[in-house]
Automatic annotation (TrEMBL), chains A, B:
Taxonomic classification: Bacteria, Pseudomonadati, Pseudomonadota, Alphaproteobacteria, Hyphomicrobiales
Gene: aroB
Principal localisation: cytoplasm
Domain 3-dehydroquinate synthase N-terminal: 75-187
Protein purpose: Catalyzes the conversion of 3-deoxy-D-arabino-heptulosonate 7-phosphate (DAHP) to dehydroquinate (DHQ).
Species for this entry: Phyllobacterium ifriqiyense
Cofactor note text: Binds 1 divalent metal cation per subunit. Can use either Co(2+) or Zn(2+).
PANTHER family per the UniProt record, alphabetical: 3-DEHYDROQUINATE SYNTHASE, 3-DEHYDROQUINATE SYNTHASE, CHLOROPLASTIC
Signal peptide limits: none
Molecular function GO terms recorded: 3-dehydroquinate synthase activity
Positions of the 3-dehydroquinate synthase C-terminal domain: 189-338
Required co-factors: NAD(+); Co(2+); Zn(2+)
Protein name: 3-dehydroquinate synthase
Length: 375, 375
């Protein structure tokens, strides 16, 4: 209650799909109150979570909801990327229906990006669309996946290839909940924070270079960084909700990153998403330098900062065997951001000057990859 | 080609989701041409169909698409309501991805309402939304399910409880394709045609009473009736795309009808949807008369016309055992159109004067059902 004044609000302006992101301490306890005061009524809720997050934080969330008059039913799935599949989607959707939720009731995604993507998809299809609230609990989910309305699951044909655009009505990013996140996952999320600086906020990147320790230590810099990251994402999403153009900028580092995730078979013991993005962003800057678009010094600066915070910055830091450059190139070509025949990449003219490059010659990418990853 | 001038166009005006419904002969052969000329480009297509429709008509459709430069991949599922399930949704979605369709490519629903609902849902979630064209082949699909953007599947918790609102970019209603439809299915679709007259078009109902034979025989009345039905549905959908209010009028006869479908366990040998709607519409008029809202003569007129065309008009025409009235009442209460506690029904003040009645006393419905269906 006493924390109320301290939460920062980032509005996401999408016409009748607009919503607020609240960022601050104590938001899990206060969730019920925030939801009811904004909705002007109570309702029922299904809380979709994973075993890890539920074990640590579910009780507090439910207590706050109950106190605010919201009856809730937990729907708990196994943690990890493998829950983003059709079978779990069916289980979660059926659980929402079994809880007898109506269209005015809400589905709460309570977990990392996996839970946000899965629960958001289920919320978007159960009764052709339920109320939906995101309470992201990983740094990655707070600064990236919970904002913007992309939901989805994976199939044999690739990651996130099936889903809906479905905006939440409210996002509650509790900065305290991140204290139980592993350092490795925290760092992975940090890669996405840094990404916003690299896309188009050079001052933010410089600020991160000076202040990243406060973010990791839970100082006021944490709330500040999450708010700027959310604002950055909101800006892009407001310009291009349905990913017809500009939104592709958010994929900086992701084309290389996804190829590496595929190469490691999404084995999180070897590479988690944010680590792939970290390496991918360094590669994107190096490749841009090689194409004479940006100075090599910028690539070095990106590499230094990400290494400082403890993130991997080169392909050879990945444990175990990797397929050869030719194979990585194939994975890149299969990536869904590729339009028939031509390669679209996010490249850069320097820190904070990223742009969408169409018609990147595949041969140039391949020879660059061979340099960075000799067989 | 020579038929081109004869197709009737009904526009559906939904802002940037607007589209046309084309109604007329020869549209299957001309589909490729119509799609390409409207899109201003060629593309790839996945054709979702069921075994029956594919066996009868797929070749002609594919030939026309190929001639127009559209490469197509058929995705054929078993006919019948049981294909509207998560497992088949997964199969169809994966087949769309396996065909390497991109967001600008199209999914074609080629079949009855089952295929439209299933393929539309898959089109809405594959790559978070593909191009989508409806080529409805049953009368019911042409006048009802292909228009308005509701897609979905069934679960153990009820029919159509999972899905998305996803509008097609074009609907091609080929009046010739209906010639291979069984008389029983044709009649079932006709119940939905008559429904539009009963909702708010008394003149159309009177016209149907005089002209229904031409519709069944494939005369010009068929195109005319389908066009008026589509226009009626489009009007309602334009007022209430996401079913927050008025769209509920389309459920005239459906609350009783769904209860009967549930009671017969969706066994199509006993009752198909349109037959349930036929009985349901008669019941809705009789119940309205009993509540002194409408004249009993109107109920008699509805009953007579539907019996004339060969549709069942009373509960006791259904083959086999039916559960008692109390059980039917339970099914009604479970229907998704019921808002917590209160019963919402579509009732009428006479032919073409239907309205949404909230707070219908369940006891009145039960005693009416006991009259119509004594144990
Ligand atoms: N929708 C989008 O726009 C978008 C954007 C980026 C990423 N994503 C998706 O997000 C997913 C990755 O998100 P993620 O990194 O959060 O993965 P995740 O959900 O798997 O979370 C990572 C791990 O942290 C644990 N965890 C989460 N919160 C915790 C907490 N407070 N304390 C302790 N443990 C906690 C989880 O149990 C899990 O084991 C991917 O599936 C990716 O595709 C989606
Ligand atoms: N989305 C909506 O707004 C909406 C509205 C009304 C009904 N529906 C749904 O539509 C479905 C019922 O539609 P339906 O009655 O078309 O069912 P259907 O798709 O099962 O078709 C009925 C039968 O006719 C066959 N058939 C279809 N076209 C044929 C042709 N030209 N020649 C020979 N056989 C043909 C099919 O193979 C099937 O066996 C239900 O699932 C219902 O929930 C949806
Ligand atoms: Zn990412
Ligand atoms: Zn119907």
């Amino acid at each position: 209650m006493t924390d109320q004044a301290t939460s920062t609000i980032v509005p996401v302006k999408l016409g009748d799909r607009s919503y607020d992101i609240l960022i601050g301490g104590g938001l899990i306890e206060r969730a019920g109150q925030e939801i009811v005061s904004r909705a002007g009524k109570t309702m029922r809720a299904a809380i979709v979570s994973d075993e890890t997050v539920a074990g640590l934080h579910l009780e507090r969330l439910q207590a706050g909801l109950t106190a605010a008059g919201i009856e809730s039913t937990p729907v708990v799935v196994a943690p990890g990327e493998q829950s983003k599949c059709f079978a779990t989607l069916e289980t979660v959707t059926n659980a929402i229906l079994a809880a007898r939720l109506e269209r005015g009731d809400i589905v709460i995604a309570f977990g990392g990006g996996v839970i946000g993507d899965l629960a958001g998809f289920a919320a978007g299809i159960a009764r052709r669309g339920m109320g939906f609230v995101q309470i992201p609990t990983s740094l990655l989910a707070q600064v990236d996946s919970s904002v913007g309305g992309k939901t989805g699951i994976n199939t044999a044909h690739g990651k996130n290839l099936v889903g809906v655009f479905y905006q939440p009505q409210l996002v509650l990013a509790d900065t305290d909940v991140l204290n139980t996140l592993s350092l490795r996952e925290f760092r992975a999320g940090y890669a996405e924070v840094a990404k916003y600086g690299l896309i188009d906020r050079p001052d933010f990147f410089a600020w991160l270079e000076a202040n990243w320790r406060g973010i990791f230590d839970g100082g006021p810099e944490r709330t500040q960084a999450i708010a700027i990251a959310c604002q950055s994402k909101a800006d892009v999403v407001e310009r291009d909700e349905f990913e017809m153009g500009d939104r592709a900028l958010l994929n900086l580092g992701h084309t290389f990153g996804h190829a590496l995730e595929t190469a490691t078979k999404y084995d999180s013991s070897r590479l988690v998403h944010g680590e792939g993005v970290s390496i991918g962003m360094v590669l994107a800057h190096q490749f841009s330098a090689k194409m004479n678009l940006a100075s090599p010094d910028d690539a070095l600066r990106v590499e230094k900062h990400l290494r400082d915070v403890g993130l991997p910055v080169s392909i050879n830091e990945i444990q175990g065997q990797l397929p050869p450059a030719e194979k990585l190139m194939e994975y890149i070509a299969q990536d869904k951001k590729v339009t028939r025949g031509t390669l679209t990449f996010i490249l850069t003219r320097g820190i904070g000057q990223s742009f969408i490059a169409k018609d990147v010659p595949p041969s140039a990418v391949l020879s660059f990859l061979k340099e960075k990853h000799p067989a």
